[in-house]
Amino acid sequence: MKRINIASFVLAMLFAVPALAGGGWPQPKGGGYFKLSQWWVIADQHFTGTGGLDPNVTQAIWNTSLYGEYGITDRLTGIVYFPFFSRTYFNNLVSGTTGEVLVPGEAINGLGDTDLSLKYGLLNKGGFALSTTLTFGLPLGNPSGGTAGNLQTGDGEFNQLLQFDLGKSFSYGELPAYANVYAGFNNRTQGFSDEIRFGVETGVQLLDSRLLVLVRAFGVQSLQNGTLTAENSTSIFANNSEHFTIAPEVAWQFNDKWGVSASYSKAVSGRIIFANPAYSAGVYVKL
């Protein structure tokens, strides 16, 4: 059975989770943004190593996570992403001619890989906000679960991501709006290739700022400089995976503190990555 990679798609989504916070704006001192969310993808097809589409045995991953930002100072913000429950599985592989189960399905549950970050505001003037963020990816997930070791909630490597965000607040007619662009370099270990990450995001507030509608486009480009063998690079958290993803999101603000959000993400192109859409839903509170 072919093993399919979802690592870069998952990681990109992890960094996209705080769409209602983050960007070029650090939290003010004592301010915060905290979110409980569910993210999942169920896939029966994938992008191959050459960018084509192939079917696969239905596989899925579900992440239940806590995300938080807290303003240590007006310029320095601490950030944590903690998937405290991660479930991954694949269905039975069944013969199309005899109906015989060739490979029985399996599932594992556990922690997911966790991100700890520090964001520092470099500039906040004239509606522009420039910041830099250093993220440490902690390998708390299981890199080799299941009978064949091909069920994973983490990749087993410690990575460091340095990212720069530039945001701009403005008005679209009489509506508050914003835009943000980012670029980053992800240094990976344990033989994985390093990565370039990039993205753009824009949103507008409607209905007296109760409703936020936004869209993101982001991607991951491998530098193809890893040392993993071909066998290792076809595991779930594979080496040299790439994608370009479009992700609209909506959020409803109940009051000054509480709100809910939901998003849809689809990789429009990629290599060694699921081709099916991913979804997320969550509830958040702002200090």
Strand order across the largest sheet: 1-2-3-7-8-9-10-11-12-13-14-16
Cα-atom radius of gyration: 19 Å
Helical proportion? under 10%
Strand content: over 45%
Integer average pLDDT = 89
Number of helices: 1
Question: Structural class, from helix and strand content?
Answer: mainly beta
Shape: globular
Mind explaining what this structure looks like?
It is a single chain. With 287 residues, the chain is mainly beta. The strands form two sheets. Strands 1-2-3-7-8-9-10-11-12-13-14-16 form a twelve-stranded antiparallel β-barrel. A two-stranded antiparallel sheet has the order 4-5. The protein starts with 6 loop residues before the first helix and ends with a strand. Helix content is 3%, strand content 60%.
